Structures are given as C-alpha cells and as structure tokens.
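Archive entry. Fields below.
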Amino acid sequence: MSDVAIAVKNLSKSFKIAHQRDGLPGYRTLRDDLIGLPQRMLARWKRNGQLTSETFWALKDVSFEVKKGEVVGIIGRNGTGKSTLLKILSRITEPTSGGADIYGRVGALLEVGTGFHPELTGRENIFMNGAILGMKRVEIRRKFTEIVAFAGIDKFLDTPVKRYSTGMYVRLAFAVAAHLDPEILLVDEVLAVGDTEFQQKCLGKMRDVSAAGRTVIFISHSMEVVSRLCPRAIWLHEGQLISDGPSDAVIAKYSDAGDRSAIQT
Amino acid sequence: MCRSSWRRGESYQSETKGFQKKRQASWLSDTKAIVTEFVNMRLVGSPLRQLFFQFRAHGLPVEMQIALPFKSSKPLALRERYLKIAPLSTESPIVTTVAELSATPIRTQARQQKPTFRIRPTTGWAALNVRELWKYRDLLWILVERDTKLLYKQTALGVAWVVMQPLIAAIIFTVVFGRVARLPSDGAPYLLFVFCGLTVWTYFSQALQHAGNSLVRNAQLVSKVYFPKLLLPLAQTLRGVVDFTVTLVVLLVLMAIYRVPPTFRLAVLPVFLFFMTLTATGVALWFSALSVKYRDCTHALQYFIQVWMYASPVVYPISMIPEQWRPLFALNPAVGFIEGFRWAVLGHSVLNPNLLCITIVMSLVALFSGAFFFRRAERGFADII
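PREDICTED_STRUCTURE:
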C-alpha cells in the first residue's frame, strides 16, 4: 500500500459542447445568458431535460494505480483523453466524478514553456517558469548553472526569449522542468520539437529521474520512445482504459487495432 | 463527543445479515486489513466508533471492546494494544489487538500513507486556502516583478509614464473642472486638490484594469499549470502599489511647490493604502473571475471605472454632497480613501470617522466577497478560459 504514488479510481470527466444548430454560438456572452435565463429556468421547470448542449465524456471510468518509481507511458489517438487525464492529475481541472489520490509532490510539464514570457530574457524566464512550476526562488538559484548548462544557451541568457529559435526555447523550457525534482513527474508530449541529440538528452534525464525512485507518467505518440522508456503502458481510447500492462504487449495491441481500423476505413 | 467514546470499557457490536460462512475463514485477514487501513488513515474524532462503522460497511460482524486505562488524546497508535476485536458468531472469539498487526511504528507509516492531495469533484463554496497562497508567495513576488518589468519595456519614457498619467489627467481636470466649470476645492489649489484624488484614483483604475484582465491575458498559464489563480489578479493590485509610491513622490513635490507644509497626518497614508489595496483586489477578483466566462467584462470594465470615478469625489469635494446623503455616498469605498487622502495631505477638510468606518467595512466586504466568488469560479477556469 505504502508504495503507491498515484491511485486513480473511476475517474470521469465530461465537457459540455454547445452546437451551432441551436443558433447559439460556441462562446457565451453575459447578454445571452441573461436573456436566456428565464427560458432556461422554464426548461428546467418543465423538466425537459433536453438541453441544447451535448455532454462529451473525455474520460470515462478510468481506474489504475501507479507505484512509486514506475515509469508509465500513456498512448492513444488524438482526443482520447490523455491530456485531460494529466490535467486532472496535476489539479489543473477537476474531475466530474471519481477521483485520484496522489502521494508526493507533482511536477507537470503539459506544454513546454507555458510560463515563459516572450519579452523577458532567458534568465528572467528561468526564474519565472521555475516559480510557476512550483519551485522556490532559492531552489532555482541553486540549480541555475545546472539548468543553463543543460539547455546549452548560456550565450543568450540575457536576450529576450522572443528572439530565440523554437529549438532554444524548448531546450530552456525542458531544462527548467527537468530540474524541478518532483516525486511524480507528469509529461505530456513535449519532446516532438528539438533535435535528436536534445531528445536523447531529455530521455536520458527522464530515465535518471525514474532511477532516483521517482514516478513518471509520460504521454507519447512515439511507440519507440514508449517501449524504450516505459516498462508499463496504458492505452486510452475514447476516454476509456482499453489496456494496461507491459508496454510491448500494450503497444502491440494498439498498433494492431490501428491497422485494423485503417483497413476498415 | 469524540472523547467520550473513549471511555473505559466501551464496546460496540455489529451483526450484519450479509455475513456468510466463507467470510468467516478470511475474517482475521479482513480485520487486519481494515484495522491497518484505519490506523494508517489516522482518523481523528471518535476512532472506535468510526472503526466500528468501517467493519459494518464491510459486512463483518464484530464485537469491539476498548479498555483504556485513562482518557488520552494521543493518536490511536499509542493505544492500539488496548483495542480488542472479536467476531460475534464464533465459539471461541479470536481476540486480536492492533499492536499485533504491525511491527513497524504506525505513526511514521501513517504519514507516508496520507495522500499529498486528493483529487475529487467539488461543488459549492470553497475555502480561501490562505495557507496555499502563502506557500506560493515566491511566485507572487516573481509575478509582481515580472509585470513591473513588462509594463514599460520597449517604451521610450519608461517609468515616467507612471508620473505622467495622473499629472496629465490632473492638468486636464484643472482646466476643465477648475477653470471652466469652477468646481470648488475646499480652499486648496485646484491642481493639488485634484491630484490628491487622482493619486488614489489612478491606483484604482490601473489595478482594476490590469487585475481584471489578468486571467484572460494569462490564459495559457491558467489552462496549463496548477497554481492558486488568485495570485494573478493579486500580483497586479500589489504591483500598482509600486506606481502609487512613485506618484506619492510627485505629490510631495507638488506640495512643496504650493507650499503646503507636510504634517504628521501623512503617517496615516500607509493605512489608507492598505485598505485601498484590499478594495481594489476585491473588486478586481470579481471582474477577473467573471471575465473568464464572459469576455464582456473586459469591455465593460473601462466604462465601469469611468462611472466609478465620477461617482467618487475626484474632481469635486465631498462637501458638495448634501449632508444627509453622505452615508449612502460613503458606501463607495473610494470616497473614504480620497477624502482621507486629502485630509492627510491638504489638512483642510475634517475627517468624519463614521464615513471612514463605512469605508473600511465596505473594503472588507469587497475583498471577502470577491475572494469567495473567485474561489468558487476558479475550478472551472481551466475548462472555459
């Protein structure tokens, strides 16, 4: 029991998606809401139940457990709830039902460079991004040289990041996140950018992180990376957990299903 | 109530219909599992009763007896050996003690077992969670620092804009309201009079404008990183304090030019400033939370600020308001601050303590209503921004 890092129980998340056909635009304005208020109250009163929006289940009844020190890859097609899952685990959004227990400090890297501001210099952004990801100022200062060395951008430290190339940007962002030292690291597909050498560096860093007894949950579309990095994989399809087990087996099932559906369509 | 359940010799009995023979075999292991889980959860309250309900929830018939030599408020781990659990239906009751269940000290295990956080759907009002805000104070300062740096980056005049904004407005108002409309100024030079009001007002409008839009402008952060979102508007209202201090220096210069001697009253300014920040934060929290869902708020905000300015005694003195309406007028917290400010700087007007009380109450109302509303709306931010 005590070696569990993440316990997800019957996790579900739904979104309401509005449709154009009822004449309402996808976004809301205060005016529309106020005007529509009596109408909606009437509808509720009549118990019509048939609302104009459709409920879309991004995640449905997902349960799994991750032990401390495990590296788990999450695979699945686009829009099957992988990122939503990580968003819930990192407490950015709330589940609709079910829940999860997290044992340990979480570091999430859902998108590289979220805390970056284009006008600020690389140096300023390191502090900014570190703080947003939950590091203390002292901590960042202590790891500053390490971060800069990892990113390999020491020459451009005092240039605003808006003048950086995409590659440099990603390097810096990953460098900050990699030095976050969380007990649980959640990583969304972020390594797609950056050259091979840097990707290798990142994968190596993630391996180090897991070797230090930390838990990593990792979303990727690259089966090669998943099978190399993660002993275990979880396959999500349309919000449901299809398969959970040794990554090679799960990947085999996944690519098998992919082939079949490709033939069918 | 919780203590009373720990009385010496207290016992509970449970008999559930769903008890079956095959369960009898696994009784002891089930009991161990439940008790271990229970102890590790470090439940407080009335532990014995809760433990009892745990058994009943699992459909285990059980008799529990507690024999405590004394009333104690120490955690369960210390009293474990006194807890006796036995199944009801067996001939010779298995008597087990919790101490037997775990050789390792339960208290350290309990600490590990407790989740760092539980993710559950929540509804209704949420607590303010000041402790978490405090934990993220480093981020708050970095945000303040960042926005201070950003605001005047790539501008030729830079920080001079901080001074220019109220100064230009003061000059315009002096011409329009002081010279043309000839509004009274309680005997003070009109420029100084209006600048006093504008010092406060510039803070309000800047803080509201920036804080009100802070969530929408940082949409990327809101939807991709976890942190207390309250920090974003809060950083903006705090950042305004920096500008405010710079404007104060200009005010002192103007005082010197008009030969208004500074008095000890100036020492009260920090108190006004404090409540001003609270008010601005409260109102900004309302606007920022609403603007996530309704972008109308960003547009409405500037008109709201304009209307609010004319509803506050920036260009006219409060003495123009009929006496009987003043308490109502003072419901606008800006009134108290502006009047208080003039009282401290110019020393002409008389400060009405009643009005000041209303102002302070109103600023607290603004802060807390805003903060609670924000916390309630916060959980949906990432989904709808």
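CURATOR_NOTE: Residues 20-25 of chain A have pLDDT under 50 and may be disordered.
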